[in-house]
């Protein structure tokens, strides 16, 4: 079929769709052939699209935590909503007549004009709310996505959370912003990143870094990070929806559903590995700083348990990692920590009582 004929048939099909909205049949000549279709046949052909539309309505209500009875009025948007079969399907779904008093070709433009009037401060009688189409969060240890603003949050909105450093004396922290529904950031869309520098040198876990997300009425996301003890602060602006089509947003949502079980398992494994690595670092630091107060046998037991935990991390077995963590904790708590505390106290008392006469 040549392009000219294809374009001619497309225009005839459009004419048929419009004609059948108010007539029972359509017939027209094209290149010597008669093109004819009834409204009944047309409605049968478009039924899959109507069903898909109703599923979108159902998903929207589910995301909003509402039912069809909570909707006060349904406004039709777009020329295809003039088709009687679509009106009937929407009316039956929401169990109320549709509001078709406004030209469906002009509804979006009218809504944009009203929103512009509201933002300009002229109209205080209406409030039009937008929502975030995808979840926003930052990357944490192990490449996990930590959610700050869930999808479908009303705009404007804000959220904040406190984080801390991983290593002693850490002087900076990279804040990486992601958009998406998956548990691992590698499966989401990276929006921006910046470094919070000049954090005063402190032991790991002591700095308190507060990260705040703010989405304003224009859909601009402002990310701020501030170390609360020193007052060091950094921020960045980003437009979360920039560059994403509706189809890409839908695909990201579908992927999150398809891989939900897999993502949960991956997150659990990464969290276990991260916990194990933190315990290994803490134990190593403890042993390095206090070699004189730990016996050789205790050192050997701990080293063996640490080696077993390191091996478990590489085997990607969440349950095995948790088991080896418990074994290491058992050794460090019962065999080292308590005896160490007693020895440290004895040494401190000996030092304090040196050259002191008791009466």
Classified by CATH, the class of the largest domain is Mainly Beta
**CATH topology value of the largest domain:** Substrate Binding Domain Of DNAk, Chain A, domain 1
Q: What's the architecture of the largest domain, going by CATH?
A: Sandwich
> For the record, what is the CATH homologous superfamily label of the largest domain?
Substrate Binding Domain Of DNAk, Chain A, domain 1
What amount of the residues lies in strands?
15-25%
Largest sheet: 4 strands, antiparallel
- The helix/strand series, from N terminus to C terminus, equals HEEHHHHEEEEEEEEEEHHHH
- CA radius of gyration is 32 Å
How far apart are the first and last residues' alpha carbons, in Å?
A: 114 Å
Counting structural domains, the number is 4
User: How helical, in percent, are the residues?
Assistant: 40-55%
Average pLDDT works out at 85
The quaternary organization reads as single chain
| Widest β-sheet, arrangement of strands | 5-4-8-9
Helix tally equals 9
How many strand segments? 12
Shape: elongated
What ranges have pLDDT less than 50 throughout 5 or more consecutive residues?
352-359
Class derived from helix and strand content: alpha+beta
């Amino acid at each position: 079929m040549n392009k000219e004929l294809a374009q001619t048939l497309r225009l005839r099909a459009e004419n048929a769709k419009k004609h059948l909205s108010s007539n029972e049949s359509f017939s027209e000549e094209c290149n010597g052939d008669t093109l004819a279709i009834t409204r009944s046949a047309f409605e049968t052909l478009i039924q899959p699209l109507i069903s898909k539309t109703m599923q979108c309505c159902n998903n929207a209500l589910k995301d909003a935590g509402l039912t069809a009875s909570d909707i006060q009025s349904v406004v039709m948007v777009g020329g295809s909503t003039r088709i009687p079969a679509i009106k009937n399907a929407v009316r039956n779904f929401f169990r109320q007549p549709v509001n078709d008093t406004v030209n469906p070709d002009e509804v979006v433009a009218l809504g944009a004009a009203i929103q512009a009037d509201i933002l300009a401060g002229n109209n205080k009688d209406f409030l039009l709310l937008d929502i975030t189409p995808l979840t926003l969060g930052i990357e944490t240890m192990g490449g996990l996505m930590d959610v700050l603003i869930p999808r479908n949050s009303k705009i404007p909105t804000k959220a904040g959370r406190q984080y801390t450093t991983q290593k002693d004396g850490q002087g900076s922290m990279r804040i990486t912003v992601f958009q998406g529904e998956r548990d691992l950031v590698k499966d989401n869309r990276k929006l921006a990143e910046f470094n919070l520098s000049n954090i005063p040198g402190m032991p790991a876990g002591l700095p308190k870094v507060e990260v705040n997300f703010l989405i304003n009425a224009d859909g601009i996301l402002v990310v701020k990070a501030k170390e609360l003890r020193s007052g060091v602060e950094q921020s960045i602006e980003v437009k979360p929806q920039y560059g994403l089509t509706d189809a890409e947003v839908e695909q990201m949502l579908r992927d999150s559903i398809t891989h939900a079980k897999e993502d949960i398992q991956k997150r659990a494994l990464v969290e276990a590995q991260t916990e194990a690595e933190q315990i290994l670092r803490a134990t190593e630091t403890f042993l390095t700083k206090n070699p004189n107060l730990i016996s050789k046998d205790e050192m050997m037991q701990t080293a063996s348990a640490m080696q077993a935990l390191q091996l478990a991390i590489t085997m990607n077995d969440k349950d095995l990692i948790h088991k080896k963590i418990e074994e290491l904790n058992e050794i460090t708590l019962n065999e080292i920590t308590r005896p160490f505390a007693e020895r440290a106290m004895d040494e401190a008392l000996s030092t304090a009582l040196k050259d002191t006469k008791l009466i």
